[in-house]
Amino acid sequence: MMDLYFFFSKILSPFFIFSNLIILILIVLFFFRKSLKKIFDYYFIIFIILSLYPFGNFLDYHFLRKDFYNKQNVENIDAILVLGGDERRIIYAINTLKNHDNAKLIFSGGSGFLIPNQKFDENKLFQNLTKNILNPEDFYTLESSRNTIENLINFKEFNNNNKFKKVVVMTSPAHMKRTLIISEKLNLRLYPHYWNKEKQEFSIVNNFQKFSFIKNIRSFDNLFREAIGILILKFMNFDN
User: Fold this and answer.
1) What average pLDDT score do residues 138-166 get?
2) Backbone dihedral region of 134: left (phi > 0), alpha (psi from -120 to 50 degrees) or beta?
3) Percent of the chain topping pLDDT 90
4) Which of 122, 127, 128, 94 is nearest to 108 (CA)?
5) Whose CA, among 19, 117, 151, 238, lies 20 to 30 Å from 201?
6) CB 216 within 8 A of CB 53
7) Are strands 104-108 and 79-83 parallel, antiparallel or unpaired?
8) How far apart are CA 157 and CA 148, in angstroms?
């Protein structure tokens, strides 16, 4: 079941990117623009509006990220579960671990490519970053995984004796809702990690200086991909 889900999710992933989808629709409508002129015009207007203003970033913040900033993280934890990520997330997890004397760091990651690429293997990155920073008894590296579902299934199998009872999960704020939905479906009790974020003042001039059509569209792509992922999970039933 998981192999089938992974395969189809990766094959269809280009269509989970909003800009890809809307451009494909515009191309199709262009060839039928005489008979579907109004629909073509509507789609083109939508594309221009999303390019001019970062609606994706605004909606992503209010519907995905907002609940996972500037709140008190749980104390007396047993472990910090890190779901993949780049160097910044790993370093942040290590620094967080230093504030919890008896906790362990558990890393679950891998490569999400259909054809595994060792250059982008998150487990390799984690091992390289921690070899001179953490003692071997301070952390665990789980079996390589391909997506968030496999990350959490691996953790469930690793913790089947319930050794770690109070576990904080660390991922990006935008990805946290999807992570918690998967955790609930797997009957895992995980606590979200809250990120510190300084309140930023809005400036029309400064935003104009950073204006980018591509950046605005990309912000909507991120929102669209997470929204599709959450929607699919709502209708999925799976276990390990």
Assistant:
1) 92
2) beta
3) 37
4) 122
5) 19
6) yes
7) parallel
8) 14
